[in-house]
């Protein structure tokens, strides 16, 4: 499942397409003006591709603040799908920034409107999911660096329990797939 921009890679090179940030901004502006009208489905059709590009490619540095201000307005859309896409797109802006202050500002602004509150809560959800995913990936990456050889892992900080590995027989392989348990003070002496 594709999760969008991870904060490190950019799938679209804005330097290759220098007019793209300005085009995205003008499309958001024109769709925002159309949002005042009753025909919000037309607005959604205009906004979805823009939000999807920014969500997948990450926000361009040029026009970043202006794009953010337009996108956060869509958190209050009457259309649930527009609110959700705006929240996912804002997540790509907030994944590395000081997201707590930004989310606090969004929450303060949304207390009087149910749709805007829903859009803001979706944004918080998506940011937290990405932060948890990034922390989990980091933790898993660090565990992959630990090699178990004859029950010794990472400077003797862990011991291998034959029952936790599910294999009481000594392994012929130098690496085993098993659960690591911290050594007790008495066993490390």
Description of the structure:
The protein is mainly α and 189 residues long. The chain has a domain at 20-144. 56% of the residues lie in helices and 3% in strands. The chain has helices spanning 20-34, 40-57, 64-73, 80-94, 99-110, 114-144, 162-165, and strands at residues 158-160, 180-182. A two-stranded antiparallel ribbon has the order 1-2. Helix 2 (40-57) packs parallel to helix 4 (80-94). It is globular.
Question: Any chance you could write out the topology, listing elements then pairs?
Answer:
Blueprint: H1 20-34, H2 40-57, H3 64-73, H4 80-94, H5 99-110, H6 114-144, E1 158-160, H7 162-165, E2 180-182
Antiparallel strand pairs: 1-2
Helix pairs in contact: 1-2, 1-3, 2-4, 3-4, 4-6, 5-6
Give me the secondary-structure category. mainly alpha
Number of helices: 7
Strand tally is 2
Strand content: under 5%
Low-confidence stretches: 155-185
User: Which radius of gyration do the C-alpha atoms yield?
Assistant: 24 Å
The biggest beta sheet reads:
2 strands, antiparallel
Order of helices and strands: HHHHHHEHE
Strand order of the largest sheet: 1-2
Shape: globular
| Proportion in helices | 55-70%
Overall mean confidence score, pLDDT: 75
Distance N terminus to C terminus?
Answer: 48 Å
